[in-house]
């Protein structure tokens, strides 16, 4: 007998691709210090920079937005579970992915050091490599939020607690949350390998944002004292990064009105606004962007989808990372153009490529040379504007990017992955270093 489908709606706002790593759970932080108040959102009526169509690098006409079909404002549809296991939330780190099931538990796969090394692949057979098949994250249940970074994953549970696993602890460990209530509703984590930057941010159930850890470009205060951002926010986003230095580490918060604000280092222009400070510890509005529904940040650049269905990117262009049709660093947000019948709803950025989910359930990706097929095409060349990911399911509701790999979540609660598989991050039950441009489903035991 077919089960009645159940619909699960998870907020996709600020699904960053990971973030700084948390402190060891034995850290005893002092009382939080409120260093500043979040200023009122700017209302100067300015607009973000449009694509530079004077270049010959494939830029789409800036006027395309005027010719587009009306946007209905609908968010991505929720997952409708009619089978088990059913994934309702998907996040990605550098070499691993995790999914939250409809029962509130989690499964992770990929690099076993970050995906839950204590658990062996379930029923994967003697030839399966550790981590190449999804494993149960033991001891963590009733998950309400989850975030992954380069080498760690953290989950918020229904009781407001936070459990983390990865580089510092292969098994889930409950950490102290230095909000006034001692509870979290949202979590963000990030790490920079070379200089030891490790920062965690949480938002309490009543909207209090607090960050802690070690990171001179994100934390003005003594590392032993939690850094209270001030004001009330909906969400906080930090970048996951495999970079050596943290000059470009920028944090983001989404305030109660949906306005995006940034703070931190601005070496690559990731603040998305003008400032005379090399490091600006005060969250201020990102230039020219209206209320946002999805934000993602990686090493050197960031992207945001607004509630009216527009995508903006800024920061270091690198290998066509901004998707605007040319390679030029942009300190202020630039709008990314799309075909007139589709609108972006969710974005996921990594240091190798970025992808976006559109209102028609398709996925488009850009950036990099598609070395391992991470853009779901056979071609190995640069793509300067979002290009259709080929062979993906037609009903994608969420997308997550890793280092040279991509996974998507469908409306039926299934996960499909493609790209790099050296750590087993495609969930195929084996590891290899071949190109995998064709999406294949992940089998969940």
Automatic annotation (TrEMBL):
Gene3D superfamilies: Regulator of chromosome condensation 1/beta-lactamase-inhibitor protein II (2.130.10.30). Keywords: Signal. It comes from Labilithrix luteola. GO terms for molecular function: guanyl-nucleotide exchange factor activity. GO terms for cellular component: cytoplasm. This is BNR repeat domain protein. It holds the Pfam family RCC1_2. It comes from the Bacteria.
């Amino acid at each position: 007998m077919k089960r009645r489908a159940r619909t699960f709606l998870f907020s996709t706002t600020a699904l960053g691709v990971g973030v700084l790593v948390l402190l060891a759970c034995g850290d005893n932080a002092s009382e939080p210090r409120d260093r500043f108040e979040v200023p009122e959102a700017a209302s100067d009526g300015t607009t973000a920079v449009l694509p530079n169509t004077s270049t010959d690098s494939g830029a789409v006409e800036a006027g395309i937005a005027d010719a587009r079909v009306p946007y209905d404002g609908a968010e991505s549809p929720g997952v409708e579970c009619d089978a088990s296991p059913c994934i309702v939330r998907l996040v990605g780190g550098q070499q691993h992915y995790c999914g939250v099931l409809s029962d509130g538990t989690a499964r992770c796969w990929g690099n076993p050091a970050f995906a839950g090394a204590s658990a062996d692949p379930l029923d994967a057979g003697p030839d399966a490599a550790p981590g190449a098949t999804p494993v149960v994250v033991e001891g963590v249940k009733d998950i309400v939020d989850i975030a992954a970074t380069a080498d760690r994953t953290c989950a918020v549970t229904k009781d407001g607690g936070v459990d983390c696993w990865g580089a510092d602890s292969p098994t889930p460990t409950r950490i102290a949350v230095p909000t006034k209530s001692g509870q979290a509703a949202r979590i963000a984590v990030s790490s920079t390998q070379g200089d030891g930057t490790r920062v965690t941010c949480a938002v309490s159930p009543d909207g209090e944002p607090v960050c802690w850890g070690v990171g001179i470009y994100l934390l003005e205060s003594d590392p032993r004292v939690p850094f209270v951002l001030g004001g009330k926010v909906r969400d906080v986003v930090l970048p996951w990064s495999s970079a050596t230095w943290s000059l470009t580490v920028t944090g983001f918060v989404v305030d109660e009105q949906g306005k995006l604000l940034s703070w931190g280092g601005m070496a690559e222009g990731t603040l998305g606004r003008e400032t005379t400070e090399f490091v600006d510890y005060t969250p201020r509005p990102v230039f020219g962007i209206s209320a946002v529904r999805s934000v993602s940040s990686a090493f050197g650049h960031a992207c945001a989808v607004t509630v009216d269905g527009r995508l903006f990117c800024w920061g270091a262009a690198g290998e066509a990372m901004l998707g605007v049709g040319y390679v030029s660093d942009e300190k202020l947000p630039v709008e990314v153009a799309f075909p007139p019948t589709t609108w972006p709803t969710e974005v996921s950025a990594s240091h190798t490529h970025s992808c976006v989910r559109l209102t028609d359930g398709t996925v488009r990706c850009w950036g990099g040379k598609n070395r391992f097929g991470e853009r779901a095409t056979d071609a190995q060349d640069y793509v300067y504007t979002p290009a259709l990911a080929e062979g993906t399911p037609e009903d994608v509701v969420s997308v997550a990017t890793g280092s040279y790999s991509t996974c998507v979540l469908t409306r039926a609660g299934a996960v499909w992955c493609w790209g790099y598989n050296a750590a087993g991050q495609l969930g195929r039950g084996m590891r290899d270093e071949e190109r995998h441009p064709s999406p294949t489903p992940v089998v969940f035991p």
